[in-house]
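Why does residue order matter? Because the sequence determines the fold. Keep that principle in mind as you read this record.
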Amino acid sequence: MIAGSLVALVTPMTASGAVDWVSLEKLVEWHIAEGTEGIVAVGTTGESPTLDVAEHCRVISEVIRVAAGRIPVIAGTGANATQEAIELTTEAAKAGADACLLVTPYYNKPTQEGLYRHFKAIAEAVAIPQILYNVPGRTSCDLRNETVARLAQIDNIVGIKDATGDVPRGVELVQLVGPDFAVYSGDDATAMELILNGACGNISVTANVAPRQMAEMVAAARAGDRARAEAINQKLMPLHQKLFIEANPIPVKWALHAMGRIDSGIRLPLTPLSDAAQPAVREALQAAGITVQI
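Structure:
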């Protein structure tokens, strides 16, 4: 089971919006050095909606190449068309991903039965381990706990990223699916509490800018050390909050640029972080002890 602090990695871009392959390699190396325990490539934070298929697949392949087996790589391969998700998942499996992350189909609002059949079809088509991803705030599609429990019976559906931010619901899910099915928090602000209650890790936006601190917090929570986890988490809480002051990944890409780790590129329809929001993100970085260059 993949566990611990997993980063939902940004896709670095030049000011013109081209994928910055050199910076991508540097980010992967930095995360490995800082203790990040896994990388999710081309999820929401990686701007999957605006990468074309060739770029999507190449980012996954490059992250796998650079990681070179040192930490697991989970490829974001979800789509709102089942066949497209199958094709992306097939390509990620060919590239050597350790698992795939599959978001619920957005916009077309399937029923719970439709969701079950969607994920079942992908699992049956591609043998790679698959992690469900529920983020109803972005998709307008909610994968209910009872549907997750049905899907957990399929051998290669091995976990879920629960980005609801609803800790009681997450705890209920942990209890419902049992210890052999991985539940990851997908909400930094509530991740510590969910891990203390049985989740196996966090797929994190904050880990993009504070990888070592997130790894230490998750490790403490997994060990049941509430006091240490809370001490670290309190320092990170401004980041958990302010990295969503505008739509993710706008603030986190600005933060990484301010840290000197990536260029300023982001793709429309997303725009650079507004001048009005920049002081709040800068203050959150400084509160976490992170050096800002701009």
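The CA atoms of residues 40 and 74 lie 5 Å apart.
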